[in-house]
Design goal:
Strand order of the largest sheet: 4-1-5-7-8-9-12-13
CATH architecture of the largest domain: 3-Layer(aba) Sandwich
Mean pLDDT: 96
CATH topology of the largest domain: Rossmann fold
Shape: elongated
Number of helices: 9
Structural class: alpha/beta
CATH superfamily of the largest domain: L-asparaginase, N-terminal domain
CATH class of the largest domain: Alpha Beta
Length: 335
């Protein structure tokens, strides 16, 4: 039996055509191709409808409003479709995938974000395979998760980072294996896929929150951090070295963080490393952060940590509850 999929086209490279000023998303282009290309009517693929945002966006222009709009479109159509595919630009796709993974609570249908490095309008492109494979997965695989499909791999959305601005393998999931590999053989890693939830689906929208990210580097000016922490922040993602380490010979640096925590600013310790996890009691330089009350980001990506904190701050939770939930896996974002 053919399933039915809703494609939500938000824009990005996949929808672009060449113009005198460079590539730009064109309204209706992707839909016209998919409506008229016989390949998309293959019996191995599901039936699909397309809704298209106006204007189509470069993903650099994505905001919380678009995240909520995508979530609301999925919520509104949830009972009518077996799966959802979101066409999205690559630059902020990892953020949108992470945000939706938290917002779409108790999801029991696939939501796959995909796009391309070369537009569908070009004769040589990666768009066609990304679209076909995403549709095939919605028809044949039961994956109740928000995912990113790119270059023959299906990745858990909240584990995904963008690693290349040029190569077809634009995304990776350094701390969690692919959920599926689509080579000459199709390998679905069923043991890695989250179980079907028992509770009913619910959309939790996000609201604007004052969250900052601060990346450490040797010789950084403590005064810059001081300025940031004087703002009415609710949370800070601190991107530290290695296994969650930071300088412990600068008493002002630690005092600034301690004072912020005492003012109920939630500070998450995330590693700058692409692969690995925060272990704050491994080194003295990490233990100093643990002692003053930083929360471990474990093996979350900075994108996932930021979106998770935003999601939790958008709910009527107190600081203690948020800190506890930040260290708990809600939808497979950490081990």
């Amino acid at each position: 039996m053919l399933k039915k999929v809703l494609i939500i086209n938000t824009g990005g490279t996949i929808s672009a055509i060449k113009t005198p000023t460079g590539y730009s998303p064109k309204q209706g282009y992707v839909k016209s191709v998919m409506d008229n290309l016989a390949l998309f009517k293959h019996p191995d693929l599901p039936l699909f409808d397309i809704i298209e945002y106006d204007p189509l966006l470069d993903s650099s222009n994505m905001t919380l409003d678009e995240w909520n709009r995508i979530g609301q479109d999925i919520e509104k159509n949830y009972a009518h479709y077996d799966g959802f595919i979101v066409f999205h630009g690559t630059d902020t796709m990892a953020y949108t995938a992470a945000a939706l993974s938290f917002m779409l609570e108790n999801l029991n249908k696939p939501v796959i974000l995909t796009g391309s490095q070369i537009p569908l309008s070009e004769v040589r492109n990666d768009a066609l395979d990304n679209i076909i494979s995403s549709l095939w997965l919605c028809q044949h695989a039961n994956i109740p998760e928000v995912c990113v499909y790119f270059n023959q791999r299906l990745l858990r959305g909240n584990r995904t980072i963008k690693i290349s601005a040029e190569q077809f393998n634009a995304f990776d999931s350094p701390n969690f294996p692919p959920l599926a590999i689509m080579g000459t053989q199709i390998e679905i890693q069923s043991h890695l896929i989250r179980p079907i939830p028992k509770k009913p689906f619910k959309l939790q929208k996000v609201s604007s929150q004052f969250i900052a990210n601060f990346r450490l580097f040797p010789g950084f000016a403590t005064e810059v951090l001081s300025f940031i922490l004087k703002q009415p922040l609710r949370g800070l993602i601190l991107e530290t070295y290695g296994a969650g380490n930071a300088p412990n010979h600068d008493p002002r640096f630690l005092a600034l963080l301690k004072d912020a925590i005492e003012r109920d600013i939630i500070i998450i310790n995330c590693t700058q490393c692409t692969q690995g996890r925060v272990v704050m009691d491994q080194y003295a330089t990490g233990n100093s952060l643990k002692t003053i009350g930083l929360i471990s980001g474990h093996d979350m990506t900075p994108e996932a940590a930021h979106c998770k904190l935003l999601y939790l701050l958008s709910q009527p939770l107190d600081v203690k509850e948020i800190k506890q939930l930040m260290e708990k896996s809600l939808c497979g974002e950490l081990n």
